[in-house]
Amino acid sequence: MFYPVKQISVDGVYTIIDSKKKPDFRFEGESHPFWELVYVKEGNVGISADERIYSLSAGDVIFHKPMEFHRIWSSENSSPEIYVLTFEASGERVNELENLSMKLNEASIILLEKCVNLGKKAFDFNRGRSVIDVIDKRLCQEYCNFLEVFMLSLVSRGSSEKLPIESSSDSRLFSDVVLFLRDNIDEKLTIDVIADRFFVSRSRIKKLFSKYSGLGVIGYFNNMKILEAQKLLREGLTVAETAEKLGFSNQFYFCTVFKKITALTPSEFRRREMLEIAKKLLTNK
Questions:
Q1: Can you tell me the distance from the alpha carbon of 219 to that of 23, in angstroms, rounded to the nearest whole number?
Q2: I need a surface site. Which of 57, 68, 71, 147 has the fewest CB within 10 A?
């Protein structure tokens, strides 16, 4: 028997946030193993997504792929209203959501508003607007269906409508430094080495990372390393092999940094991942 595969399928729902922010709003950066959609209903925001910097205004939407480091802040002295939806997704076209950002047309805005309103009725939330239970299974399925249709309508419009990446001298330098860090993720870099590489002062590098990432340079670099470490541990490398491959001076320091960022030791992380894989295998039987 033939079972059609959805081009984009919503497999889990984590948060549905509809929030009005103050002009001094600044959310410190984060990354997580699921998708995130940010829509600006009113006002203006700045967003960093890995090495890319965006300026979004009313009607703009952006997607953050799993494990992408991202940050958001109010801009132009506005009090923005934003939707933030986080979810698990799969399907043959889900990867087309990566780096997707665009101005929504009226039909897409209506679809997204309908989706958010359904979600508010379908789920029970904690104070942080994270889903803790399903109130109405039918509305839950409708929410997922509307979100799937919304996302498929956007990827079907193609990449030609993507929002421009900010191109100020600061944002270009930040992007270049982040790419340099990524290319040298197995090295032991210092702020002085980074500043010398780009012929700028230590203070300018520090200010850039404070402005766009909310982290210090080495803190950002360590976050990048730990994201890569999670990938390597999932692929089967030992804790010692992972620490060595990513340029940590010793395994103890690697474990300390890993736990500081993830709240788990590398060994605990591996056990949790193995349990998740086992659960999925049992579910699929």
A1: 26
A2: 57
29's torsion region: left (phi>0), alpha (psi -120 to 50) or beta?
A: beta
What's the predicted TM-score (pTM) here?
0.88
From CA 44, how far away is CA 41, in angstroms rounded?
Answer: 9
Question: Tokens representing 24?
Answer: 């001094």
Cα–Cα distances in Å, from 33 out to 69, 135, 249? 11, 25, 27
φ and ψ of 106, to 5 deg: -60, -40
pLDDT tens digits for 208-233?
A: 999 999 899 999 999 999 999 999 99
The closest alpha carbon to 220, from 252, 189, 254, belongs to 189
At CA 103, angle to CA 68 and CA 73, rounded to 5?
50
* Residue whose entry in the numeric block shows the structure tokens 């994201």: 227
Is the sign of the CA dihedral 96, 101, 102, 103 positive or negative? Answer: positive
* Ordered alpha helix ranges (H), 157-201: 169-183, 191-197
Tell me the percentage of the chain whose pLDDT exceeds 70.
Answer: 94
Rounded to the nearest angstrom, the gap between the alpha carbon of residue 148 and the centroid of all alpha carbons in its chain is 19
Q: Helical H runs in the chain?
A: 106-122, 137-156, 169-183, 191-197, 202-212, 217-234, 239-245, 251-262, 266-284
Cα 41 from Cα 43, distance rounded (Å):
7
pLDDT band at 1 (very low <50, low <70, confident <90, very high): very low
152 — pLDDT class (breaks 50, 70, 90): very high
